Amino acid sequence: MELRVAGAQIPVTRDVDANLALLEAAIEYAAHARADVLLTPEGSLSGYTHQFDAGEVEAGLRRIVSLASEAGVGLALGTCFAEREDERCYNQVRFYDAGGRFLGFHSKTLTCGTLTDPPEGETNHFATAPLRTFELNGVRVGALICNDLWANPGCTPQPDPHLTQQLSRMGARVIFHAVNGGRDGSEWSQVAWQYHEANLRMRARAAATWIVTVDSAHPLDLPCSAPSGVIDPLGDWLVKTPVQGVQHFVATLALD
User: Three-state DSSP class for 26?
Assistant: First the structure.
């Protein structure tokens, strides 16, 4: 069994129209590369914020899903989204099959916040939902968002639940990881990069799962906060993109 995955390392901002243009180009790339599914960064449609225009994001989502389904490409789409069912705001990876059918979403679990009591930060703005897996092209997959995977000890008020290993125990063969990390070009940005890459490789190996990961490329004049690409279940890179700027990749995962 194989799954052909594409990823888009693109700049994510609060400009939904600009985000849409980049997502459309990524879908075109994925379709040309005959990918089964495209992964995009955290907040790649809405921007990485809880303060977005819900109507504008819903309209953009319809447009992106329509384009992807016309191209025959599934989506693991990173976006913040206001769910109508419970009127709560989530930081999500939304899964769609190649026909545009909505499979469900993963919500960021290890939301970032200060270590104060009570914590401050996004942990106060985004709702969470139970961890789950999805059936995509006959493959059991899961998703994580940014800090869900590396559980940064400086901004994680919750205990580390080792979500990669939980997803593996739930049957996930592939984990799609949407990232939007901060960076400033300092020494500590480099330390964070090393921490992120080490966690990606070690957690893929510990869980014996494939990890497909993409970071936001904003701002374009700085390296990303984490590498983008594909890691195999032994913790080795199958594909790894350049560390800066807009980058697309495609890879075929041999799951047998």
Answer: helix
